[in-house]
Design brief:
It holds the Pfam family Ion_trans_2. The protein is mostly helical. It has one domain: Orthogonal Bundle (Helix Hairpins), CATH 1.10.287.70. It has 5 helices and no strands. The chain is elongated, with a radius of gyration of 20 Å. The N terminus is likely disordered.
């Protein structure tokens, strides 16, 4: 179900692609945290963004801190959601790769048994696009982590 939707971009029965749903959830998850820290901890947006990524993925460099118990409780919940979400995205990606490998092996066996036809020539590119679509959620997660780290390097003046 989920893996197939991830591989095919979720086009079955008009559903949104799994990677798009994952991206939306990441934006909401991080956006809520950024808004929380801007409102409760009075952080500027760039500091709230950095802190959201830093705590949400449990990287925890410790260069930005909160002082209130409400913020500490919020961050604990934020980390638990982030760890679960990152784990789920990685599981979907890994399952998608396994299924894609099985499909590719089965396709290769079928192709070896039939003569080269126009249908065989045109089906190869479709599989590549499906595999790229299944890598999008993990790629977005990596980009998000890199943005937070780059921000830390510049704003926090890490050496």
């Amino acid at each position: 179900g989920i893996v197939l939707a991830a591989r095919r971009g979720g086009s079955e029965a008009g559903k949104a692609p799994t990677w798009l749903i994952g991206l939306g959830l990441i934006i909401v998850w991080q956006g809520v945290s950024v808004l929380f820290h801007m409102g409760v901890d009075h952080m500027p947006i760039e500091k709230a963004f950095f802190f959201s990524v830093d705590t949400g993925l449990s990287i925890g460099f410790g260069s930005v801190r909160v002082e209130t118990n409400v913020s500490r409780i919020f961050n604990t919940i934020h980390v638990m959601i982030g760890a679960g979400g990152a784990g789920a995205l990685l599981a979907i990606f890994a399952s998608s790769l396994v299924e894609a490998s099985r499909d590719a092996a089965s396709d290769e066996l079928a192709k070896a048994l039939i003569p080269l036809s126009e249908e065989r020539k045109t089906g190869i590119g479709t599989r590549v696009v499906e595999n790229i679509e299944s890598a999008i959620p993990v790629s977005l997660l990596v980009v998000w982590i890199c943005l937070g780290t780059a921000y830390g390097l510049v704003y926090e003046e890490w050496e």
